[in-house]
Amino acid sequence: MNYREAQRQKVEGIRQSVFRDPGQGVFFEKEREFVLKDAALNLWGGIRDDAKKYFADYGISWWKSDNGGPTGHLLSSQVACLNHLYFARQRKEVATAILKQIHPGISEAMIIDTGSLLSQR
């Protein structure tokens, strides 16, 4: 068994208890055990609405999504990155702590008004 198959089996084993979703979501036109029926559940609840709004507001594409939202594929690297890092954009102190680990000379993260940048285009 290769790594990818081992990971699919792992998420299939925890899918019901973690996501409360039966699986069998559609991916490449076929129902699959490792794809959530309710794809939105793939995003952590603490970021779900904000991330979906941010992607819609800025025209960011969701990976392999037919529903205009996050994929239900439980091995999506895009969803994994969002679930692990997106909250940092919502919390200045967390972003500052991460940046200080990259370079100790950084004093604080700055909030960037992305809305005004887009209106200038």
Molecular structure report:
The protein is built from 5 helices and 2 strands. It has 121 residues and is mostly helical. It has a domain at 3-75. Strands 1-2 form a two-stranded antiparallel sheet. The longest helix is centred in the N-terminal third of the chain and has 17 residues, at 3-19.
Element layout with pairings:
Blueprint: H1 3-19, E1 25-27, E2 30-32, H2 48-57, H3 77-90, H4 92-102, H5 114-119
Antiparallel strand pairs: 1-2
Alpha plus pi helix count: 5
Class by alpha and beta content = mainly alpha
Determine the mean pLDDT. 87
Largest sheet: 2 strands, antiparallel
Round the Cα radius of gyration to an integer and report it: 17 Å
Spatial separation of the terminal alpha carbons: 50 Å
Shape category: globular
Short description:
The protein has 121 residues and is mainly alpha-helical. The chain has 5 helices and 2 strands. A two-stranded antiparallel sheet has the order 1-2.
List keywords for this structure.
disordered C terminus, two-stranded antiparallel sheet, mainly alpha, 121 residues, 2 strands
